[in-house]
């Protein structure tokens, strides 16, 4: 099989060979050696024809548009060739040939779809007893396998620490770019977390910052946040983390009505200064299509006034108070002080972070931070896994 | 009224003065001079106290967390002061004072909320008869009022042309930065649209490109896309645009079941090369909380194999074919050829764009493009409107 025209770069191992094929009026039904039965509609098969007429082999992108093929296109013949591929003759004369590994990976019979759902990566919830995943800077820079382990920890646990990072300002960018380009914001490509007289965010004061996600004021919250410690001579300023998914899970069990209220009520977050005015209206807890918690959006200091019906308002305040109260419980909190040359990297859409107040008179404190989007993390993982 | 501690930078004109105030067990009810009655719960009022203890005046961000106030906090007194502000005495001794313009703008009685909904910006649907909004480069660079008109056209119409742009490579960045920083992608900060032998996207070939949005493979499709013409000596390569919201609207009326199928069925989009592998699973038509069409996600050449149930698959193909067929109807299409020094700027999450094939042997063709997110567009509009 010439796989050059695969509309993909992944390899699809042969799970089970094709054993039989039957042409039905609207579909082709194949039987696999392990007895699974997979129907494929004619339109689906024609649409996914991997031949070099249908897919441009340089980009591996489709050039065929299915609307250019008759909706009632028929299949005149089907067989399994000597290499185990499914070969089809279409009523318009076109021919298609499918690799059995690829076909099995994309089969949409119920069992195959259920298998794919079950194989999806799962978040591992954590609390104060978390064994913090710690990685060595140089190993991440040099070794793709260690890099992949770090990225998987970020995807599935959502909180990691890196040690041995150079403390020159800007060196954060070197490790961030091991994943991808940095996501810029109005605070810059790299932002300096220091106490400033003309602060344009409470982050740039010496105040304590309650548990929050960064940029909840944007439609897409940054996926990964980095916080790199360059200098930390000031008293206080410890970092606190909670697993927002674990908090949501506890709320769901302990107060299901409050959980639902936070899933269903859009809340406005605002981030404004003299040059910008960001507003985003979204619920604090976002669920995915399967009803699983997919994202937490929270920063009390960036929240606008609640805007819901008079009837709903007391329920919203009750739910909001419950959520915040949970984030303050010791059972969920990981508290650490960062030393120079260490950095936090965490899932900003899941792991809420806080900072204790620090005393700027007691010594200097300088952190640098940056963001990378989840798309880039997941793409990098797929490329490293090829 | 000292407005320095307002958790906001906007001005709130006095729509109607406060005329009466009544304290109830869980809320304060105010009557306005125009007879509207607005209840405000104690928790809401305490939460939104604008005093300098509760809001840090430098950042205008809240330092109070409502969970630090008793859930059953009572109000011991309320009056309207000589400046028309609402003054409250809380059971814990704290005092709050609210500007009547701000209070009215955030009132959540049913009538006030309905008014705000009605005042939201509305998309103006268009078809082939669109009077294309055209702007002059120099005016956009020099005049904030023209700039605002352009941004409003982008928000509400979603397709604009700018003329008189310098044709030096990179000059696109100057006008893009009139709005905000540019959103980087794996294709760079500025991308060069040219026919390349080692293309990593069909966009970088001389093929025709069917109507599509850019980066449907990312969780957040770029909000604005710029395409700047530097050289256009090749035959062919005309730009085609359709209003994706108008297409969705037509589908909703002409084939409601197909419309629903595209709203409810997640489709995978993939963008992969040797260094990246982006995948995003989302419906082609996204609705907002009110059921209005909010976003179109579409690029046939970046689409993965459909993955839905055997029963649903024929319905999905039918709906997909109907949508594509509509985008090909002349009634929806705006077709123009860009000259050097002109650029398109459009809403990439609404306005689908296509390119006719061009003949690279007939002459040079060089466009540059870039992206800016919708958050940045909306923030810039709010700042210009202050």
TrEMBL record, chains A, B:
Xref: Pfam families: GBBH-like_N, TauD
Cofactor(s) this protein cannot do without: L-ascorbate; Fe(2+)
The Gamma-butyrobetaine hydroxylase-like N-terminal domain sits at 27-103
Q: GO:BP terms for this protein?
A: carnitine biosynthetic process
The residues covered by the TauD/TfdA-like domain are 134-371
Q: Give the InterPro entries listed for this entry.
A: AlphaKG_dependent_hydroxylases, GBBH-like, GBBH-like_N, GBBH-like_N_sf, TauD-like_sf, TauD/TfdA-like
Q: What CDD domains has UniProt attached to this entry?
A: CAS_like (cd00250)
SUPFAM superfamilies given in the database record: Clavaminate synthase-like
Molecular function per GO: 2-oxoglutarate-dependent dioxygenase activity; iron ion binding
Q: Which keywords does this Swiss-Prot/TrEMBL entry list?
A: Dioxygenase, Iron, Metal-binding, Oxidoreductase
What NCBIfam families does the entry give?
carnitine_bodg (TIGR02409)
| Family per similarity comment | Belongs to the gamma-BBH/TMLD family.
Protein name, UniProt field = Gamma-butyrobetaine dioxygenase
Which species does the entry assign this protein to? Answer: Pseudomonas saponiphila
Q: State the taxonomy lineage.
A: Bacteria, Pseudomonadati, Pseudomonadota, Gammaproteobacteria, Pseudomonadales
């Amino acid at each position: 099989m010439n796989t050059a025209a695969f509309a993909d770069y992944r390899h699809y191992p042969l799970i089970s060979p094709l054993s039989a094929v039957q042409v039905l009026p609207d579909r082709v039904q194949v039987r696999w050696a392990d007895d699974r039965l997979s129907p494929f509609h004619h339109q689906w098969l024609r649409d996914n024809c991997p031949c070099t007429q249908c897919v441009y082999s340089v980009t591996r992108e489709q050039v065929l548009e299915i609307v250019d093929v008759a909706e009632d296109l028929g299949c005149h013949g089907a067989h399994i060739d000597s290499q185990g591929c499914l070969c089809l003759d279409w009523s318009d004369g076109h021919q298609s040939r499918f690799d059995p590994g690829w076909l099995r990976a994309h089969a949409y019979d119920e069992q195959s779809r259920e298998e794919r759902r079950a194989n999806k990566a799962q978040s591992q919830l954590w609390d104060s007893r978390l064994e913090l995943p710690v990685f060595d800077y140089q190993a991440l820079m040099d070794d793709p396998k260690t890099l992949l382990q770090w990225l998987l920890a970020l995807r599935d646990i959502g909180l990691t620490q890196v040690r041995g990072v150079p403390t020159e300002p800007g060196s954060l960018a070197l490790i961030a770019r091991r994943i991808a380009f940095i996501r810029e914001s109005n605070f810059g490509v790299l932002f300096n977390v220091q106490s400033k007289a003309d602060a344009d965010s409470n982050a740039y004061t010496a105040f304590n910052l309650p548990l929050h996600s960064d940029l909840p004021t944007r439609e897409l919250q940054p996926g990964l946040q980095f916080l790199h410690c360059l200098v930390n001579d000031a008293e206080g300023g410890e970092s606190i983390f909670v697993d927002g998914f674990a908090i949501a899970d506890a709320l769901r069990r302990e107060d299901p009505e409050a959980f639902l209220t936070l899933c269903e009520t859009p809340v406005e977050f605002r981030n404004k200064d003299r040059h910008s005015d960001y507003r985003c209206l979204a619920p604090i807890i976002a669920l995915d299509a399967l009803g699983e918690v997919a994202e937490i959006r929270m920063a009390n200091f960036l929240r606008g006034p609640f805007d819901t019906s008079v009837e709903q308002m007391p329920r919203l305040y009750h739910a909001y108070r419950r959520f915040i109260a949970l984030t303050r419980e010791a059972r969920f909190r990981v508290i650490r002080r960062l030393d120079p040359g260490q950095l936090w990297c965490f899932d900003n859409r899941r792991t809420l972070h806080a900072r204790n107040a620090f005393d700027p008179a007691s010594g200097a404190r300088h952190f640098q931070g940056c963001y990378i989007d989840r798309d880039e993390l997941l793409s990098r993982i797929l490329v490293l896994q090829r």
